[in-house]
Amino acid sequence: MQFGSIIVQGENFLLISGLLISYVMFYYGIRILKVERNIMDLIFNSFINGVLIWKFSYVVLHPNTVLQNPMTILYFNGGYVGIGIGIIFITIYTWLYIKKHNISVASYTRAAVPVYFGYFSTFVWIHVSEDPQNYLIILQAIVAVCFFIVASRIKNQKTLLQLPIWFHLIQFEIALYKNDFVYDGVISKEVLLYVSLIIIFLCISYGSERQGREEAAKDEEKGWRNATNKITLGGIILSLAITPILTNQQETWRIESKTVMSTALDSGKIGTNKGQVAPDFELLSITGNKVKLSDLRGKTVILNFWATWCPPCRAEIPEMQKFYENNKNNNVEILAINLTNTESSPDTVKDFVRDNGMTFNILLDKQGKIGNLYGAITIPTSYIIDKNGIIRGKHVGPMSYETMDRFISSIQ
Question: What percent of the chain has pLDDT over 70?
């Protein structure tokens, strides 16, 4: 994310934002919700530790990469897998803490649910600022804020525990409609995350209600026979039932979108902004071959500007190489344009490419003209160009495998 001349890597910006919103939610819980301090301490500590686990889970998931280049820890995180590990930690830590200190589950729920929606709202609005034209992300953000407001006004434990279930059902549907459901036969990690969260909150809700029923009266109906859970279960079934409809609608939208993009290519403006036709160029590769951008029409292209002396560039190269190896047969091409005019010599680039086993196209911008054409002032800078030659996204800073996968899957 860019603030004037200051560049903050997206993942690190989320980390910083998470720490700041933790303090805001801490005082919100104490002063607005009137929650006991020990409960807010539990929420604060569990979230901070969960975020740190998410951030540094990259070390566990990619130990060889970290050993080869420790700087990768600064730029990348564990992605959706890291989020899953963080959620597991928060769940176990919270359960043990509540049991040890005899904290009322109802009091904890009263604080945790609104704070949860507060976190979610913050992070989604950060994504809105990165892509303000994506109405589906805006919809996700609006839904999150609405649930935050509602949860802050509700005191009934049973109702509060149902809110996250309905919330994630809605987010699940939006994720499906975002065309993130299936890509190359693999279910989207975002969709899997929402399904997992729905299951987790269903279990929590069921366990809490069962405990309450046993304490209130042994003859009360047990299991899934209460009306609220029936409605929730019905919502899940309905959600799964309408998935084919949404998928068909999205497929129709994709066809219409391709038609629009094709028209834009014929009459669109050439430029480096999103939605414009990427300026054409021709450069020599490191192997001496001529490579022209327009010759790659029909393929999705990641156009990356980098240099050997740039630490974040060095950090993203293993991620980029891995992504290229897994997607080179899926009409995906990587053009890594080295700003050779900033290097000590062309031989430095050749040695670096050989030592790092880079097999995607490395192009040499010896005069820096293409870098200036695309405004690559801060590196690494990457452009995502679709099969019609239209720029569909721009990313300033190093890209993780997950970031590249998210960009490509959104336009394939």
Answer: 77
